[in-house]
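[job 4471] stage=fold_predict status=RUNNING
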Amino acid sequence: MTGFGGRGVGMPDHATSTDPAVQAQLDRLTMLSPGKDVLGLERIATLLERLGNPHHHLPPVFHVSGTNGKGSTCAFLRGAIEAAGLTAHVYSSPHLVRFNERIRVAGQLIDDTSLSALLSEVLDHAEGLEASFFEVTTAVAFCAFARTKADACIIEVGLGGRLDATNVLAKPVACGIASLGLDHEAFLLAAEDGVPDMPPLDRIAFEKAGIAKASAPLVTQKYSASMAKTIAAQASLHKAILHARGEGWDAAVYDGHLHYSDAKGKLNLPLPRMSGTHQADNAALAVAMLRHQTAIHIPEAALAAAMEWTRWPARMQTLTAGPLTNLLPDGSQIWLDGGHNPDAGAAIAKTLENGALVHVILGMLKNKDALGFLTPFAPKIATLTAVPIQGHEHHTPGELCDIARANLNIADVRQASDIVAALELMAGQHAPTNVLICGSLYLAGEVLRQNDQVPD
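[job 4471] inference complete, writing structure tokens
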């Protein structure tokens, strides 16, 4: 391939709506799409051309790729931009509960009336293209963003970068690459004409750095020497301006603050309120992206405010009072995390390292490395209860229990039919309980729905 063909990527994200008009269009999308997401730029470019190339008429674009942390980085970007009194469009994926979560128009989730009309319009223009679920969704977002005034546009890559549908964006004001690790290996590591053979993590870096654009800053985290070299080569090839952490900018946490520095000076910022020490890295990347572009002005006070204000669901999120939390004894706490790869497991381990043991409820998709995810924080697991993920190909609870028993020193491993049943197993302890529900964003979405915490 030359970057314009395509390769299949699993099954599309499931999407339902309580609005009949939106659901009718989602049903139509399911019927018209090829049943899988397909990497490549040819179909999305054709579809957008039929729609008048809305992606050429967006506010200043911030484009973010990465394996872990890209959604949180986008959330910090939005937090800082809004704290500066500006408005931002945001395109992110996947949704947790409602399809509308993917498209935030000038600060608000897209309303059902606009969404159904845009889905209908895009699907009319997609006839005969076999456009994927994600390609149609991307086109809907770009149409919405081009037709509504805002000061900035934040776009999260769906999968990879180089061949992701969002990579039709030609002139971003800043590109960022978050933490990198192994995920979606079957697709991102697939042999391809014109792509040299390289170690797996270098290939991941190659794919993610494919969002680099001429004359645009490419802001990156720290990686291994070979991964950094791969990214630098991509930046040079695309004539992007590379700003690597540790070279063009840097950040460190000490004395209870996030200390940031670059050529413009130093900042002393509050630590992010979001749980997890890794969130300081995601926040620092967002700060660096904003500091290395000139399209919009974000004062230091807005960067500081973003540390306090920014929230991102299912990232070590504490559940509030609701039907699920009410199943546990008073004083209990439930954390929810959608991480699902070894690096996400390592981030969870770092968050839990100084706390008490937790009771883990785990559900994972079939194509995820359950052992690699669990191993980093296995010493902090008091009990593990495995559950299925309805509507998706998943590791059965029995498979997850077998993996834990055979490889990890976890004293109590068991199965449950669903989240409610898993929590009820813990309810009889009559003492406050710390619970972590993790392993899948799809599972996280179901938890938020059942606990009446639909993201807004």
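[job 4471] summary: The longest strand covers residues 249-254.
[job 4471] exit 0
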